[in-house]
Amino acid sequence: MTTAAPPLVLTRRRINIIFSALVAGMLMAALDQTIVSTSMPTIVGDLGGVSHMAWVTTAYLLATTLVMPVYGKLGDLFGRRTLFLVAIGLFTVASVGAALAPSFGWFVVWRGVQGLGGGGLMILSQAIIADIVPARERARYMAPIGALFGLSAVAGPLIGGFFTDSSLGWEWCFWVNVPVGLAAFAIGWFALTLPKRRNTTPLDIAGIIALSAVTTCLVLATDLGGSEGWTAPWTLALGAGFVVAVVVFVLVERRAVEPVVPLQLFTNPTFAVATALGLAVGLGMFSAIAFLPTYLQMSSGQSATVSGLLLVPMTAGIIVTIQGTAGFIARTGRYKVFTVAGVATILAAIVWMTQLTGDTSLWTIGAMVFTLGAGLGLIMQNVVLAAQNAVPATQLGVATSTNNYFREVGATLGVAVFGTLFTTRLAERLGTALSANAEQAVTAGILSPDSLTPAAVDAAGDPLRSAVVFAYADALAPVFWYLVPILVVALVLAFFLREIPLATEAGMVARGEAVTEEPTPAAEVQPVVVVERDGMPAGRPSAGE
């Protein structure tokens, strides 16, 4: 499967150089999402796509989810360096296309192409870290990437708001990716010294097509179910298509020589539990994160840019716990305790959020979202670490991509179902609030719930403002109860997660593609790192197998 050649020599200096290439690529993807979210109302207004705004998010989400397993499998078969550069290139070119988009349709297309690159950046960065860093030390390297996403949640809205409100225009939300992308590509080209592999087995084309059908039907069905109704004809048709596609996918994968998602992975109890945990937590946490900013914006009367800063405590919670646990995991090799604690903390935060009311102070809300962030920081990277550590080194890419794929599926389902419950309740309560304050609503120019804006509500003053804020709180808080059973199941799963001793060899070392400068005792693991390059002999299982 691979060509015999001198192995790489792993040194601290080389691992840091490679890690810098990964960070550059991930920074671009992380910032893009939060920058665009702030500018979206202006973008769709300028391009005439307000009534189809959801397609912008759907295109990116669908493309990202589609390619995750493909990047993971191809990376295992052919090596990850070229794929990582391709992902950066796709993302950068698509940014130019989005900035120059002449119509809403073309803008959606280019956002989809960005998703093709973004999915690769996410999966390949995690898999490359697993290739060059032992599982015992991996948390120290994955933690900065998690913190990077947290920091982008703060910086992105501010940058996006600045571009949109200034004379530069929203197009600069995409132009800014070009120099960053070129720099990331240059760093990756010169610094990302990784082996290439020669694969002789046939690609699982049928499996890729079947999985694409599964993902497309699922994403579109949940999107239409949330907006058009779960019994709408197209929703039901896509749901039926999803079931058929799943059956076809399983049949195809059972016969494939190199399946894009090896079904035997799910016979591994540790991998199966870690992946189920990712699904459950994705279902719960993204639902909460998706709709909290809307409530905060309406209750505070702030602009979208400023209200985004109200989620800073969540970012702080993520950074504190993700950085605080990395050293402990490296010293002790224990990670299950943080996984259990993470789910329990998220569960506590969600239960606390059911107590939201119209007069809940921003300080209390800040404490709630800090608790939620702390829980996410405890579990986010550890679920991926557990999945990677449970499989042979030859399957690091596909294990990483499959775990992330199911988390994205959970997030898609959670946001759609949670959103339907929230918006249905919200429409009823806003109708009541506006009817009770009809004269004041007409004076403020609020003729229907659809015409509500934070600025208009804030300008209208009380009692209308209080009525609207209480309507949002009354609609949002009880819906959090629907997430509690899901997180209880996740907590039970966390207790059943088998804690396999963390591997003390990097993935490339375990496969015979690299060597360390000197033997590393299990009791005192040092971070590993890379030196000169070339190809590598065939692999052997990781220490965590």
From TrEMBL:
InterPro entries: EmrB-like, MFS, MFS_dom, MFS_trans_sf. Residues 18-502 form the Major facilitator superfamily (MFS) profile domain. It is a multi-pass membrane protein. Keywords: Cell membrane, Membrane, Transmembrane, Transmembrane helix, Transport. The chain crosses the membrane at residues 15-32, 52-71, 83-109, 115-133, 145-163, 169-191, 203-222, 234-252, 273-296, 308-330, 337-356, 362-385, 405-427, 479-497. Signal peptide: none annotated. It is found in: Cell membrane. NCBIfam families: efflux_EmrB (TIGR00711). PANTHER family: COMD (PTHR23501:SF197), MAJOR FACILITATOR SUPERFAMILY (PTHR23501). This is MDR family MFS transporter. The lineage of its organism: Bacteria, Bacillati, Actinomycetota, Actinomycetes, Geodermatophilales.
